[in-house]
Amino acid sequence: xxxxxxxEAWCLGCKRCEIACKTQHSATRDTVKALxxxxxxxxxxxxxxxxxxxxxxxxxxxxxxxxxxxxxxxxAMQKDPASGLVTSDPAKCVGCRTCVSMCPFGCVQVxxxxxxxxxxxxxxxxEDGCIPGEPACVAACPxxxxxxxxxxx
Amino acid sequence: xxxxYLILGNSAAGVSAAEAIRATDSCGSIVIASPEPHRxxxxxxxxxxxxxxxxLERIGYKNADFYERLNIEPFxxxxxxxxxxxxxxxRATFSNGTEIEYGxxxxxxxxxxxxxxxxxxxxxxxxxxxxxxxxxxxxxxxxDRARAAAHAEGRESRAIVIGAGLIGLKAAEAISxxxxxxxxxxxxxxxxxxxxxxxxARLLQGMLARHGIECRPGVSAQKILVDGGTAHGALLTDxxxxxxxxxxxxxxxxxxxxxxxxxxxxxxxxxVCGPDLQTSLPDVYAAGDxxxxxxxxxxxxxxxxxxxxxxxxxxxxxxxxxxxPLAPVFDGSFAVNAVDFFExxxxxxxxxxxxxxxxxxxxxxxxxxxxxxxxxFVVRDGKLAGYILLNRPDNxxxxxxxxxxxxxxxxxxxxxxxxxPLNCDFDKTMRWERLHAGYPADRNEKGxxxxxxxPSAS
Amino acid sequence: MLDYLIPRYKVLRDxxxxxxxGVCERTCSNDVHRVDEQAGRVTADHMKCVNCQRCVTxxxxxxxxxxxxxxxxxxxxxxxxxxxxxxxxQAQTGGxxxxxxxxxxxxxxxxxxxxxxxSQVTNPSxxxxxxxxxTRVFLGARPEALKVNERDHTVMTKLPPQIxxxxxxxxxxMSFGSISLNAQTALAMAAQELGTFFNTGEGxxxxxxxxxxxxxxxxxxxxxxxxxxxxxxxxxxxxxxIGQGAKPGIGGHLPGExxxxxxxxxxxxxxxxxxxxxxxxxDIYSIEDLRQLIFSLKEATRYTKPVxxxxxxxxxxxxxxxxxxxxxxxxIVVDGFRGGTGAAPKRIxxxxxxxxxxxxxxxxxxxxxxxxxxxxxxxxxxSIRSSADIVRAIAxxxxxxxxxxxxxxxxxxxxxxxxxxxxxxxxxxxxxxxxVKRLNPEVGAQRVVNLIRAWNHEIQEMMxxxxxxxxxxxxxxxxxxxxxxxxxxxxxxxxxxxxxx
Lengths: 153, 458, 501
Prior knowledge:
The structure holds 3 protein chains of 3 kinds.
Chain A: E1 2-6, H1 16-24, H2 31-36, E2 47-50, E3 55-58, H3 67-71, E4 77-79, E5 86-88, H4 98-102, E6 109-113, E7 116-120, H5 136-140, E8 146-150
Antiparallel strand pairs in A: 1-8, 2-3, 4-5, 6-7
Chain B: E1 2-8, H1 12-24, E2 30-34, H2 46-50, H3 66-69, E3 72-76, E4 82-86, E5 91-94, E6 99-107, E7 111-113, E8 127-128, H4 133-152, E9 158-162, H5 166-176, E10 181-186, H6 198-210, E11 213-217, E12 221-227, E13 230-236, E14 241-243, E15 246-249, E16 253-255, H7 258-262, E17 284-286, E18 292-294, E19 301-303, H8 307-321, E20 336-341, E21 344-350, E22 361-368, E23 373-380, E24 383-390, H9 396-404, H10 428-435
Parallel strand pairs in B: 1-2, 1-6, 2-3, 6-17, 8-15, 9-10, 9-15, 10-11
Antiparallel strand pairs in B: 4-5, 5-6, 7-16, 12-13, 13-14, 18-19, 20-21, 21-24, 22-23, 23-24
Helix pairs in contact in B: 1-8
Chain C: E1 9-13, H1 23-27, E2 33-36, E3 41-44, H2 54-58, E4 64-68, H3 81-93, E5 98-99, E6 114-116, E7 137-139, E8 148-149, E9 154-155, E10 163-165, E11 169-171, H4 181-194, E12 198-199, E13 216-220, H5 229-234, E14 237-241, E15 252-254, H6 261-267, E16 275-277, H7 287-300, E17 307-312, H8 317-326, E18 331-335, E19 344-345, H9 346-351, H10 356-369, E20 377-381, H11 387-396, E21 400-403, H12 405-411, H13 433-436, H14 441-466, E22 481-483, H15 488-494, E23 497-498
Parallel strand pairs in C: 11-21, 12-13, 13-14, 14-17, 17-18, 18-20, 20-21, 22-23
Antiparallel strand pairs in C: 1-4, 2-3, 5-19, 6-22, 7-10, 8-9, 15-16
């Protein structure tokens, strides 16, 4: 499958990826409204770690053997056998955070949405199960620090 | 009748095994049999169901078409309790008399409640364990009835939960929304004795108290006061009497393996299995709560009654049952628990209560009373061996990874323990290796095609 | 002491669009922006803004623009605000004013007064999409006559070494030190992909660029930094830098703090010492001395590589070019006064030198008069802004052009002219690791390649329009040019007729 990889040599820590992710996963898909008005405020599924000297943007690896899926007690976290995509179904999630305790990369955020804790994670910007050309974070990166390439597993 | 694969048990281990079998063997017949009449559901979700965080529609662990899509024949209902196993004849007999001959059989029957020798406990109809969906529905019914009756009498409704383990406390949390006062009894000197230490237990107990749940560690019931088949109170081990409207008994569980042991399967604290999860009986495999697991951290052998472990074992056992040549071996595991109580989250893993003065073991404890967080890291021989994280869940899986990979901590930024751990706390090489599984071989760490590599552009 | 300086720019932030995301704060190396969570807004220190437009480009909601500081002058065209501020700055510091990039003064840009021809009916135009269109150029000395063995179809004359350009554009000298290694690497990658050449400048040849050595021109300048037999032999050609269009008559000075381990190794000078390139070559005081250096370099490379001489466009440029050709230069590079620099004294940049258009025309004319134009190659440099400028330069007599500013603009440069601060937000004119990494050479190379490919398409279109199918046929073909709005004197120097003639 195609995966997003972080090339830390080129990461500036500008966090444009986070903003693009929030916009993509907002109700209005409008950056201004998403960041200033929407409640709940949209959550970025990509996390930029570090400072201006060393930084990297960390995304769900969509692991071949995803521990979050094995750990999930509700069946919300699933890996699609065809596309390889690992997704969290907000309707089923109960916010127990087993996935948080299992993910080796810190790529699941549990946030309160409409009074319920649910796990949110990178969905490679899929809509209706189909993967578009380029995830929003990759498109927003000014310096090739996030790439979307066919992986070898 | 006959099935190529007979799976006893319709929960995490059973359905995971069925999926794994089907991934390898597309046409062998699979039967899943369970005395529970429901299609597979997230068993730990029963407390969330009572809290309204999920519903009977959403509690399903797999999509509605799961059995049909994987061509699995589900035999679900009270008659499908496995009673007898004849390993030589490859035959299982169920409580309704049905006999099924199998090619290979998986025992994934999970746990059954352990009934403590408390006088009167088995006499009352308003006592329930808290292990199955039906148990939960009954607990809800008891709670609703207790509230109605108590409020009609102008008093508070009261429930007693016996056992302050994970199941007992989740049950207490669940019924606390319907019952005015919940008392939790625990024989051990602290709540969650298996997954928490003394300090963490103290903090959590205080938090539960603020939600109307009174925990009484060090105290259990010595006698249930039953009147006309109804429990109305308990005589506690400290000699006092505590009235109640109903009781949830959550003292403990034991592997549901009587029929297998009778058939000759070797049992320690659970079924003894090889690395392929085959029991001592030919063509009989086991997965989930029934299996005796070697704890990768302390070397003890005991069942690891946790959902992720059941899923993993089910996947491994299923692949071996279907003769997948690439099937991995099961080489032990360690406990990782994630549980939430009201607004608090509790994550624990591995070794959390090392014996006092154990050699090479240090505990790094960080308490922030203001933030309501408590973190404890157990380090053994320079490697992380366990953690407790109360209200500090972020990125905890990175700690779990350190335990699993027995990573020497001197290669890692010690800031990792100050707050949520980060990928950039690892050194450059490890950081790259962790995050770049499947990275294209023709690209270097700068993303350049290797043929155009510039070795060290500053 | 109160500083009498006022800001040059004003950060204009659209409050309706600003989301306080902080991208501007994180991307500004001059610390202009600050997200003030307490006040619930983003503030700006306008004084620090250099108008590099990094934040404008990076802002996810396009909430930013940089405006002129609204302060007006007193209306005098003599005592302009800029003039006042320059004086204030020097009164404050007592120092020479430093500036970067090329001459910004509003002198005539002759390119814009030269119109191109197109064919109608006779000598019909050519469609470059359907017919071959040659943009290949060879640079180097040429023999006065070519002896050919007709029977064997072989060339009898021994040909001097030449370099082959697939496009008539090269990247001019920019040293590692003045620009980042990532910037230089991007140009090297682009040169390789385009089949042309980049120039190391006087900064040595960084070992990581070895894979691009066949597309490198190495420079020998007055400081002789990084020069060794290996350096000379590794590249495709050698360039002796006598002068630079942005600062003729001036040497260079790379302050010690920019000489880090890598720059030190590449320049072969101690770390932390100032790298001073003297104004003259201390061994060149005559054309004869220049000839000695040219032939020393040819000896060192066993006459396998062409040697170029780069001179700044100054008043007697034609005579100097002629002398250089006679001294043995295979390629003569003329650099006009709008050519860029990483740092130059402002008064030099703004007041010394002449435009490349006039210099090029007079050099070409002089070499033709002396009958030696055909023995050397001529390269024009100093603010080539578009493919049309290239076509004009070639029609005025150049074999090819050098571009630098345009290539840097493709890499992100916004011509803020603050290179000398070393805080280039685009990762180009800086050695700070956290800024250098902003320029991913592969991304940069792709942008430069795109630019030059686009230009080459346009050159082919324009040539096709003129009915010319090889760039060689355009060289010195001044009939393809007509002046507009020029005086007779200017037209004479340029050697073109006025439009309508």
